[in-house]
Specification:
alpha/beta, Rossmann fold, 3 domains
């Protein structure tokens, strides 16, 4: 426990907060791009330690939240087909599609199962050869290597009854979109350490140079986040725009080469729709020609339509994902919209910003 305690030391956090306050002389806006960091910020009251002229925005850092309703609709359509077992991570079960969720499909009789790894879905397919087993694959680059391993394993086993409905997304194109789209001015980013543990951070160099925005790879403990904020603020005050690595105990510049190799073998970049943001070029992953036989969209003739994203009339989750609004700006927050009765994905997911505000800011009040 000593290692964890060091990164949650209250006195160290206070010293860092004081140093941040001494360093800031202008109004700056920073955005963290990770739902885990958002939850840590709210849980430990990091936002309350910062000076008033330093604002934190919460970006599209929750993979569940940015999965578009169209993907949920396609997963439900597959699940409703005869002799199909649809497998998913548990946090996808309550995410709203256009009309219902995977939980709703399961309640209506579809065989929808929660798994803890895509390899679990491969195992189900080996044990149920009479069924078509489909895994709903979502997440950032962090989870993509395990999806790639599962497809690779299925091909090696020669499985004819296994496929993937893939909605993996890549972080760098999202940062580009946030910096070039109408919305709040973002002065610096706190990049997600777990994504960079896989991919490294070389992709951030051209973004930082092009837009003159500091990007600091940051961990998830309170001290990590405060150190990341201090590093970003120092850059801004000094007029620098570099990519720096606070999370050096886990992340190196080149990332995990083995994970990247299996991803490069199985996936290639493609356009992807993000809930609340829209279609972004090269922001998603699709199977390469060698593995395209495992594409559930082709197997179930789903096509490649791109529906316009909609949400409940009072729900502002799309604006929350872009940093335009904060959860407390939503008129439904904590009233019509709660984790038990969510209107948007940012309240459904355990990593969503609305869920973080509901869980922790209400306790602070």
């Amino acid at each position: 426990m000593k290692f964890v305690d060091e990164y949650r030391d209250q006195q160290a956090a206070k010293r860092l907060a004081d140093e941040i306050a001494k360093t800031v002389s202008h109004r700056w806006t920073l955005m963290e791009v990770c739902g885990g960091q958002t939850h840590a910020i709210m849980k430990y009251g990091i936002d309350q330690l910062l000076p008033d002229n330093l604002e934190l925005l919460h970006g599209p850092g929750c993979p569940v939240c940015v999965t578009p309703a169209e993907i949920i609709d396609q997963a439900i359509e597959i699940a409703d087909a005869p002799n199909v077992i649809l497998c998913s991570f548990g946090d996808m079960m309550r995410v709203p599609g256009t009309h219902t969720s995977l939980n709703g499909a399961k309640a209506s009789g579809a065989d929808v199962r929660i798994v803890y790894s895509p390899l679990d879905a491969v195992e189900i397919a080996t044990r149920a050869p009479e069924k078509q087993v489909v895994f709903l694959a979502i997440g950032f680059e962090t989870t993509a290597p395990t999806t790639a391993m599962a497809v690779h394993r299925a091909k090696k086993l020669g499985l004819q009854n296994f496929s993937m409905l893939i909605s993996h997304v890549r972080v760098p194109p999202a940062l580009e979109a946030l910096l070039t789209s109408p919305g709040p001015k973002i002065d610096a980013f706190l990049a997600a350490g777990h994504v960079c543990a896989i991919m490294g951070f070389t992709e951030y160099f051209p973004i930082s140079r092009k837009h003159q925005v500091p990007i600091v790879v940051t961990g998830f403990e309170p001290i990590d986040i405060l150190q990341g904020i201090l590093m970003a603020v120092r850059q801004l005050e000094e007029g620098r725009a570099d990519v720096e690595n606070q999370y050096a105990r886990v992340v190196n510049e080149r990332g995990n080469q083995q994970a990247q190799a299996i991803m490069a073998c199985v996936f290639e970049n493609t356009s992807q729709v993000w809930r609340g943001i829209g279609a972004l070029s090269k922001s998603g992953l699709k199977l390469t020609r060698e593995y395209e036989a495992f594409d559930a969209r082709a197997r179930f003739n789903l096509g490649a339509s791109r529906k316009e994203e909609t949400s409940a009339s009072v729900c502002v989750s799309g604006k929350v994902l872009r940093g335009v609004k904060k959860p407390i700006d939503c008129p439904a927050f904590g009233r019509k919209c709660t984790p038990e009765h969510p209107l948007g994905a940012t309240m459904v997911s355990s990593e969503g910003a609305c869920a973080a505000y509901f869980r922790y800011s209400r306790k602070r009040d």
